Amino acid sequence: MVRENDLVAIFHSIHRVMKAEKILKTAGLTFLLIPVPRQLTSDCGLAIRYAPADREDIEAILEREGLLPPEIYRRVGREFERL
């Protein structure tokens, strides 16, 4: 589900991740709402996965809307590296 180098944004509430999903969909950006990978933890249970090529656009929009996720990880092999 999460490919090598994909980014995973973790939010701390379902409300925030759903709001982020709505904003990113409206902006027409490419991302996927996924269950939080087992290697990571979150009270919310959902995360947003996106490609490194979309990072700047996605994070700029989320920051502008006050929704920049507190945790962002990159898939490296079988692990996740916190950014």
CA-to-CA gap between the ends?
20 Å
Low-confidence stretches: none
Task: Estimate percent helicity.
Answer: 25-40%
Largest sheet: 5 strands, antiparallel
Rounded to an integer in angstroms, the radius of gyration calculated over CA atoms is 12 Å
InterPro entries: Se/S_carrier-like
Organism: Desulfuromonas soudanensis
Protein name: Putative Se/S carrier protein-like domain-containing protein
Pfam families: Se_S_carrier
Explained architecture:
The chain has 2 helices and 5 strands. With 83 residues, the protein is of the alpha+beta class. It has a single domain, classed as Alpha-Beta Plaits (2-Layer Sandwich). The chain has a 5-stranded antiparallel β-sheet, with helices on one face. A hairpin with a 2-residue loop joins strand 4 and strand 5. The radius of gyration is 12 Å and the shape is globular. The mean pLDDT is 94.
